[in-house]
Amino acid sequence: MLGAGLLISSLLTLFTPLAADFGVILVIVVRTVQGMAQGMAWTGQFTIWAKWAPPLERSKLTTIAGSGSAFGSFIILCVGGLISQALGWPFIFYIFGSTGCVCCLLWFTVIHDDPMHHPCISVREKEHIVSSLAQQPSSPRRAVPIKAMVTCLPLWAIFLGFFSHFWLCTIILTYLPTYISTLLHVNIKDSGVLSSLPFIAAASCTILGGQLADFLLSRNLLRLITVRKLFSSFGLLLPSICAVALPFVASSYVITIILLILIPGTSNLCDSGFIINTLDIAPRYASFLMGISRGFGLIAGIISSTATGFLISQDFESGWRNVFFLSAAVNMFGLVFYVTFGQAELQDWAKERTLTRL
User: Fold this and answer.
1) 228: closest CA among 297, 161, 313, 137?
2) Under 8 Å between Cβ of 100 and 9
3) What pLDDT, in 10s, does the model give residues 14-52?
4) What CA–CA distance (Å, rounded) separates 148 from 260?
5) DSSP category for residue 344
6) Fewer Cβ neighbours under 10 Å: the N or C end of the chain?
7) Distance CA 65, CA 212 (A)
8) Which band of pLDDT confidence, cut at 50, 70 and 90, is reported for residue 212?
9) Which of 54, 219, 48, 46 is nearest to 134 (CA)?
10) How far apart are CA 38 and CA 113, in angstroms?
11) Are the C-beta atoms of residues 73 and 265 closer than 8 Å to each other?
């Protein structure tokens, strides 16, 4: 599923300039299918992590892998303007679509379902992973307990955490170049470079957050739920503070850039919080639940980007102020709900049940 999603997305990236020649409708169709394919790729990884990531290394491994998304955004924003000016905008799609296809070849060649079937890892590593996951349910699931999931408050805490996190992240991803070029009066080339800086900060904070979370767990300094809530609090509270401060420092170029870099950087600390919490409470259903969580996040992205476009079209400066205040309010709602109802214990409905015969 993950490899197929990456391959479809990469091929459609190559096809995008041709689709543009046929009109906007075909571009919309291509982008829609591409988004579906990327959803397959993103959610599919968590079934793999449930079989590969030892509990005390889970934050570290998932955040290192997840940082690739921010690194990718950093690269494309950094060089996209240069490629567009030097070769033309279609070559952005040709170059990065081809890169995705190469990654697909590596994926299908190197990746295996679990440590037991991988031909290249050492016996010591294989034994370490298998023994650390020995207490985790591993039998094939019989049915998805939808009713139990719907009434599970810890699961809703994760869903609303995703909703809050994606609300602000989507605004930054979608409108950051516009904000920089319009409010700071920067040309497209420099705007691309400046727009890429927040994503290198996001990738760095993602990795550092995972390292710190697993350090706290491996040294028994904090309980698992405390670590999850701590990093969720950092990832929702700190970017909210930065966002609220932005309208008041608009006259300062340097401080504005620093805050714009800190927002996605601190926001990605959530990767060691509620974002991987489904691996704690229901590893058997990790990919399914991550798909739903991602769905909540994408719904938030649709609403927030639409609301942002409407607000800044009314009045640019006051519109941005309202956008940042609203984003902070949404983040605070998600944070309070997660801190109140979030858990890290394996849920009853996610446990393996032994069937007996009379």
Assistant:
1) 161
2) yes
3) 999 999 999 899 999 999 999 888 887 777 777 788 788
4) 40
5) -
6) C
7) 16
8) very high
9) 54
10) 20
11) no
User: Six-digit token pair at 8?
Assistant: 């479809």
**Summary mean pLDDT of the chain:** 87
What span, in angstroms and rounded, lies between the C-alpha atoms of 259 and 264?
A: 9
Mean pLDDT to the nearest integer, 83-89:
88
Higher pLDDT, 274 or 117: 274
- B/e letters for 118-148, b = 16+ CB within 10 Å, e = fewer, are eeeeeeeeeeebeeebeeebeeeeeeebeee
CA distances from 27 to 33, 35, 173, 329 (A): 10, 12, 20, 34
The answer, yes or no, to whether residue 247 has pLDDT greater than 90, is: no
151-171 per-position pLDDT tens digit: 999 999 999 999 999 999 899
- Three-state secondary-structure class, residue 53: coil
- Rg for the chain (alpha carbons), in Å? 21
pTM assigned to the model: 0.80
Q: DSSP letter string over 157-219?
A: HHHHHHHHHHHHHHHHHHHHHHHHHHHS---HHHHHHHHHHHHHHHHHHHHHHHHHHHHHHHT
User: What single DSSP character describes residue 346?
Assistant: P
Q: How far apart, in Å, are the Cα atoms of 153 and each of 255, 281, 342, 343?
A: 39, 12, 7, 9
Secondary structure letter of residue 263 according to DSSP:
H
Query: CA of 155: how far to CAs of 128, 215, 236, 237, 358, in Å?
Result: 29, 25, 18, 21, 35
